[in-house]
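Curious: can you check?
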Amino acid sequence: MSKFDPYTHLNIVHNPIDDNLTRLVSLPTTDAKPNPSPGDPVASKDLTLNSETKTWLRIFRPSKLPSNDNTVARLPIIIYFHHGGWLLLSASDTSIHTNCSLITSQVPAILVSVNYRLAPEARLPAQYEDALDAIHWVKKQGVDPEGEQWIRDYGDLSRCYLYGCGCGANIVFFSALKAYETMKLEPMQISGIIMNQPMFGGIQRTQSELKFATDQLLPLPVLDLMWDLALPKSTDRNHRYCNPALDAGRHKELIQRLGRCLVIGFGGDPMVDRQQEFVTMLVSHGVRVDAQFDDLGFHNIDFVDERRAAAVLDIVKEFII
């Protein structure tokens, strides 16, 4: 690994003076469709979240809303945070948009995909702050007579879920703790937290990190670089944002308030040992955890393998409904 360059692997150039990245790859994007064509299962639209931080949301709803006796049945609300290792991707990337559309139509649900700030231009805890903005926004729309219609008229504030993939799963864990600590959530209720292949780390290497050190997608130098560029400056991978198990005792009361959690992982993910340690930590704090680990598969397999994507979606549907 001595000649391996994680910057080349990620197609990024770090500009240390300004602490920003030049991202050399432009991935396909998909525009929102507020007025879907006949046959499209989902409608979507983009809205500003915070003009100062330049964050925004892409909201999805089923084109055909379920009804009971000609009254629209309110749907669970999913607040979604994409993967990308803190450094890459956006809510408009086609892979993210497609996944959110599928979740929306299949659950079915109102889904709010958060285009949070990326690192290193905005280092942690900026992403947790963006998540809190999104949680507060959803609550406000649900109680405001002039709020966003898709939330106000079609969403069920008493059935809100936080759903994150990769670093997004890290975001939902820490933002949930912060929400319970700092927000008056009622009448909004976080009914569950879904963490799909959550991103955690630490200085001491785990067996899975060593076993998959040369993983094609996330070799160790890439994981280390992602944390180096995302964590607050002058900290290391034993910071609680990266390695929450080390600091869990101090936040026991908040962790105990998390309610139901779903953690999904795959045996070929370098971070799988971290994810299982995380589950053990949650259970030791009295959290109700549904841990779904498949021995086969690699990180983000559900974004490239339709069969695995369907299996993950089935797990999520069972957790939500």
Q: What stands out?
A: The chain has a mean pLDDT of 95. The CA atoms of residues 302 and 311 lie 8 Å apart.
